Amino acid sequence: MKETRSHMAQNASMEEFEALLNESFEIDTPDEGSVVKGRVIAVEAGQAIIDVGYKMEGRVELKEFAEPGEAPKIDVGDEVEVYLRQVENARGEAVISREMARREEAWDRLEKAYAKEERVEGAIFGRVKGGFTVDLGGAVAFLPGSQVDVRPVRDAGPLMGLKQPFQILKMDRRRGNIVVSRRAILEESRAEQRAEVIGNLTEGQAVDGVVKNITEYGAFVDLGGVDGLLHVTDMAWRRVNHPSEIVSIGETIKVQVIKINKETHRISLGMKQLQEDPWDVVAAKYALGSTHQGRVTNITDYGAFVELEPGVEGLVHVSEMSWTKKNVHPGKIVSTSQEVDVMVLEIDAAKRRVSLGLKQTMRNPWEVFAETHPVGTEVEGEVKNITEFGLFVGLDGDIDGMVHLSDLTWEGRGEDVIGDYRKGDMVQAKVTEVDTEKERISLSIKAMDDSFSGVVDGVKRGSIVTVEVTKIEDGGIEVEYEGMKSFIRRSDLSRDRAEQRPERFQVGDKVDVRVTNIDSKTRRLSLSIKAREIAEEKEAVQQYGSSDSGASLGDILGAALKSSDE
User: Fold this and answer.
1) How many other C-beta atoms lie within 10 A of the C-beta of residue 358?
2) Spatial separation of the C-alpha atoms in residues 454 and 358, rounded to whole Å
3) I need a labelling partner for 220 at 20 to 30 A (CA). Which of 301, 307, 482, 511 fits?
């Protein structure tokens, strides 16, 4: 009986043990690579010993429980999630990681936030090439340098370790890549702030602002959370070469809101709009034809800009700069900042343009020359240029006169003697014409030779002079009077046709001839024996007879000759 009871008890214990063993087998051991919950049972030697159940314990470095820049926060009894890397190592302990668990947890959380385009919180904890590393609660993300702020950041020290929101731009769990942006958060916040500030602004409103940045084309002004552009052309009514002439960074200035773009949130500002427009009184202040002093502010290929007063500039076109310098650059006539006298030629108030003249403040040199050098005046000048039709000679007043080929010499052709002249030669000439409208002065070098005037002085048309035959030709004879050559044609050799033979004369013969014409321009005397004979016959008839007296012409001439001999 006793043996039977003992046997029964033994069977019951075996059954219970078998049931417990089967129960333990039925409990699944967690898979490696999964996140499990555990309890801290001890903290020693810089490690936390964690019981993850299933009769497994593991060790985790305390630093894995620390947030970036903070001390570890872990106590005995705390429940934590860890990542089971290996069920049992050589020491019979589970290989676990709090950091990997946080990473897995973070990735799950971040993927949900990324899908919903929600912000995530993180802290910048390191610097890498091209940007920074950010701890997103267990997952490490990359923050490009261009995504740190809306403007380039020179010193990121104050941002390190600071918990702040970020926007996930891209993430790839398989590759473990996450790219975040702090700039997107700032821009969104700034956009809200800008919208609020812009909503309180109206075009034409005068506001105070602080100059934040200066560029070549203007300055950016902070209006209290939103920037506006103050263009250089709207800083002052006068010409401004660089914005730094008017404003400086950090300066508080009063500006007017010129335009607001509701779509782009761009604001255009102006300073000069708060000042009196000098163009309101330009027409009354600068009458046409009046002369004023101004300052050259800018020189271009087509002229020079002259400031009459701050905000009022006029253009002196290159054609209105000099009476004489026609094809030179304006920079060779005036220089920047030079004070000059100018005349108002035209005003276009609508286009805010003033046309000025520089040469009009000086007398026309051609008019001055005409007054001081009447026709016939002798001048001396340097040969400036030689052309196929004559010489250009420099005269007083920085103007030129022209000697035409026909005015170079009395003897021969001008084409034959122009080669005797060189640039730089000093020549003397007489003024023959001055045309002030066409700005043209005609000179004559050959007019300087007045020997013809000396020869013909006292000789008039109809005078009888004695000439010497110097050459016999078929068409007539060449004669000389006081060193001046002349030619008597065959038809003028005699009244009698039979005597109109050149060969009846010999070189050296002295012959009385009648002057029929004096041409000062060509320096020629027209002579005729025939005209002398006709004149003598006419005179004889008048003195010794008439056509109805009955005396023959021979009788009259005979009486005239006899009277002459006596």
Assistant:
1) 25
2) 49
3) 307
Rounded (to 5) percent helix, strand, coil in the chain: 30, 40, 35
Q: What is the tens place of the pLDDT at every residue in 93-110?
A: 766 766 676 777 778 888
318-377 per-position pLDDT tens digit: 999 988 887 889 999 999 999 999 999 999 888 888 999 998 888 888 888 888 889 889
Statement: residue 384 has pLDDT above 60: yes
The residue that leads in pLDDT, 319 or 75, is 319
Would you tell me how many other CB atoms lie within 10 Å of the CB of residue 223?
20
Contact 11, 18 (CB under 8 A): no
Answer with the residue of higher pLDDT: 190 or 258: 258
**Cα–Cα distance, 100 to 255 (Å, whole number):** 57
The H-or-E segment that residue 138 falls in is: none
Grouping H, G, I as helix, E, B as strand and the rest as coil, residue 364 is: coil
495 token code pair: 């009244």
**Average pLDDT over every residue of 219-246:** 87
User: In residues, how long is the chain?
Assistant: 566
Question: In this structure, what are the phi and psi dihedrals at residue 432, rounded to the nearest 5 degrees?
Answer: -110, -20
Within 10 angstroms of residue 206's Cβ, the number of other Cβ atoms is 11
One-character DSSP codes across 168-201: EEEEETTTTEEEEESHHHHHHHHHHHHHHHHHT-
Residue closest to 363 by CA, chosen among 343, 377, 337? 343
Cα separation, 168 vs 177, in Å, equals 11
pTM value? 0.45
Amino acid at 160: M
Contacts of 58 (CB under 8 A, 6+ apart): 38, 49, 50, 52, 82, 84, 93, 94, 95, 96
